[in-house]
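batch_manifest entry 22 of 60
target: Cupin domain-containing protein
source organism: Lachnospira pectinoschiza
requested by: lab member K.T.
priority: normal
notes from requester: please return C-alpha coordinates only, no post-processing; we will run our own comparison against the previous entry in this batch. if the run fails, retry once and flag.
--- input ---
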Amino acid sequence: MKYANREEFEKVDNFGVGAPNDAYAQYFQGNSFLKPLTEFGKCPVFLANVTFEPRCRNNWHIHHAKSGGGQLLICTAGEGWYQEEGKEAVSLTPGTVITIPAEVKHWHGAKADSWFSHIAVEVPGEECKNEWCEPVSDEDYNKLG
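--- output ---
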Protein backbone atom coordinates (compact mmCIF):
# COMPACT_ATOMS: atom_id res chain seq x y z
CA MET A 1 0.00 0.00 0.00
CA LYS A 2 1.26 3.46 -0.88
CA TYR A 3 1.64 6.20 1.73
CA ALA A 4 2.16 9.78 0.56
CA ASN A 5 1.60 11.14 4.08
CA ARG A 6 4.45 10.60 6.57
CA GLU A 7 2.18 10.45 9.62
CA GLU A 8 0.04 7.70 8.06
CA PHE A 9 3.18 5.84 6.99
CA GLU A 10 4.67 5.96 10.50
CA LYS A 11 1.58 4.15 11.84
CA VAL A 12 2.46 1.06 9.75
CA ASP A 13 6.27 1.27 9.84
CA ASN A 14 6.72 -1.21 12.72
CA PHE A 15 10.46 -0.62 13.18
CA GLY A 16 10.31 3.19 13.19
CA VAL A 17 11.73 5.77 10.84
CA GLY A 18 14.88 6.49 12.85
CA ALA A 19 17.26 9.41 12.43
CA PRO A 20 18.22 11.28 9.25
CA ASN A 21 20.78 9.20 7.34
CA ASP A 22 23.31 12.05 7.30
CA ALA A 23 26.41 9.84 7.12
CA TYR A 24 25.32 8.50 3.71
CA ALA A 25 23.27 11.46 2.44
CA GLN A 26 25.77 12.09 -0.36
CA TYR A 27 24.79 8.71 -1.87
CA PHE A 28 21.04 9.36 -1.85
CA GLN A 29 18.73 11.57 -3.88
CA GLY A 30 16.16 12.83 -1.41
CA ASN A 31 15.95 12.19 2.31
CA SER A 32 16.51 8.80 3.89
CA PHE A 33 16.44 7.71 7.52
CA LEU A 34 18.31 4.98 9.37
CA LYS A 35 17.35 2.97 12.45
CA PRO A 36 19.94 0.30 13.38
CA LEU A 37 18.32 -2.88 14.69
CA THR A 38 21.59 -4.54 15.75
CA GLU A 39 24.71 -2.90 17.07
CA PHE A 40 27.46 -2.73 14.45
CA GLY A 41 30.51 -4.68 15.62
CA LYS A 42 28.69 -6.41 18.48
CA CYS A 43 26.55 -8.68 16.32
CA PRO A 44 27.95 -10.68 13.39
CA VAL A 45 25.03 -9.54 11.20
CA PHE A 46 24.17 -5.84 10.89
CA LEU A 47 20.50 -5.02 10.32
CA ALA A 48 18.97 -1.57 9.91
CA ASN A 49 15.56 -0.24 9.00
CA VAL A 50 16.10 2.18 6.12
CA THR A 51 13.28 4.58 5.28
CA PHE A 52 12.97 6.62 2.08
CA GLU A 53 10.70 9.61 1.53
CA PRO A 54 8.77 9.59 -1.78
CA ARG A 55 11.15 9.73 -4.81
CA CYS A 56 14.21 9.09 -2.61
CA ARG A 57 16.63 6.48 -3.88
CA ASN A 58 20.24 5.56 -3.34
CA ASN A 59 22.90 5.72 -6.02
CA TRP A 60 23.89 2.72 -8.04
CA HIS A 61 26.24 0.69 -5.85
CA ILE A 62 28.06 -2.62 -5.53
CA HIS A 63 28.69 -4.74 -2.43
CA HIS A 64 32.13 -6.20 -3.06
CA ALA A 65 33.45 -9.26 -1.23
CA LYS A 66 36.29 -11.74 -1.69
CA SER A 67 33.79 -14.41 -0.58
CA GLY A 68 30.27 -14.28 0.84
CA GLY A 69 28.95 -10.76 1.24
CA GLY A 70 26.09 -9.06 -0.53
CA GLN A 71 22.86 -7.77 0.96
CA LEU A 72 19.30 -8.79 1.75
CA LEU A 73 16.38 -6.37 1.63
CA ILE A 74 13.24 -7.24 3.60
CA CYS A 75 10.50 -4.82 2.62
CA THR A 76 8.32 -3.79 5.57
CA ALA A 77 6.15 -0.75 4.72
CA GLY A 78 5.11 1.42 1.78
CA GLU A 79 6.23 0.79 -1.80
CA GLY A 80 9.58 1.04 -3.53
CA TRP A 81 11.82 -0.11 -6.37
CA TYR A 82 14.86 -2.37 -6.75
CA GLN A 83 16.87 -2.59 -9.95
CA GLU A 84 19.97 -4.48 -11.03
CA GLU A 85 22.06 -3.11 -13.86
CA GLY A 86 20.78 -4.33 -17.22
CA LYS A 87 17.47 -5.60 -15.81
CA GLU A 88 13.97 -4.22 -15.37
CA ALA A 89 13.09 -2.60 -12.03
CA VAL A 90 11.21 -4.75 -9.51
CA SER A 91 8.28 -3.34 -7.51
CA LEU A 92 8.78 -3.68 -3.75
CA THR A 93 5.89 -4.11 -1.31
CA PRO A 94 5.73 -5.34 2.29
CA GLY A 95 6.85 -8.96 2.47
CA THR A 96 9.09 -8.81 -0.59
CA VAL A 97 12.58 -10.19 0.05
CA ILE A 98 15.42 -9.34 -2.33
CA THR A 99 18.70 -11.26 -2.29
CA ILE A 100 21.58 -9.25 -3.73
CA PRO A 101 24.73 -11.24 -4.38
CA ALA A 102 28.12 -9.60 -4.00
CA GLU A 103 29.43 -7.85 -7.14
CA VAL A 104 25.94 -6.97 -8.52
CA LYS A 105 25.46 -3.29 -9.38
CA HIS A 106 22.03 -2.11 -8.21
CA TRP A 107 19.95 0.61 -6.53
CA HIS A 108 16.80 0.73 -4.38
CA GLY A 109 14.43 3.37 -3.09
CA ALA A 110 10.88 4.67 -2.76
CA LYS A 111 8.28 5.00 -5.47
CA ALA A 112 7.47 8.56 -6.52
CA ASP A 113 4.20 8.61 -4.58
CA SER A 114 5.00 6.63 -1.43
CA TRP A 115 7.18 6.45 1.64
CA PHE A 116 9.06 3.14 1.82
CA SER A 117 11.00 1.10 4.39
CA HIS A 118 13.08 -2.03 4.20
CA ILE A 119 15.35 -3.84 6.59
CA ALA A 120 18.82 -3.95 5.08
CA VAL A 121 20.89 -6.97 6.09
CA GLU A 122 24.61 -6.89 5.40
CA VAL A 123 25.58 -10.47 4.54
CA PRO A 124 28.82 -11.45 6.29
CA GLY A 125 31.77 -12.19 4.06
CA GLU A 126 35.48 -11.75 3.55
CA GLU A 127 36.89 -8.33 2.67
CA CYS A 128 33.46 -6.72 2.29
CA LYS A 129 33.21 -3.12 1.11
CA ASN A 130 30.71 -0.95 -0.74
CA GLU A 131 31.44 0.96 -3.92
CA TRP A 132 29.11 3.92 -4.47
CA CYS A 133 28.58 4.78 -8.12
CA GLU A 134 26.57 7.34 -10.10
CA PRO A 135 23.09 8.57 -9.11
CA VAL A 136 20.00 7.08 -10.75
CA SER A 137 19.04 9.72 -13.29
CA ASP A 138 15.70 11.50 -13.02
CA GLU A 139 15.06 10.45 -16.63
CA ASP A 140 15.45 6.74 -15.82
CA TYR A 141 13.62 7.00 -12.49
CA ASN A 142 10.66 8.85 -14.04
CA LYS A 143 10.15 5.99 -16.54
CA LEU A 144 9.12 3.70 -13.67
CA GLY A 145 5.39 3.29 -13.12
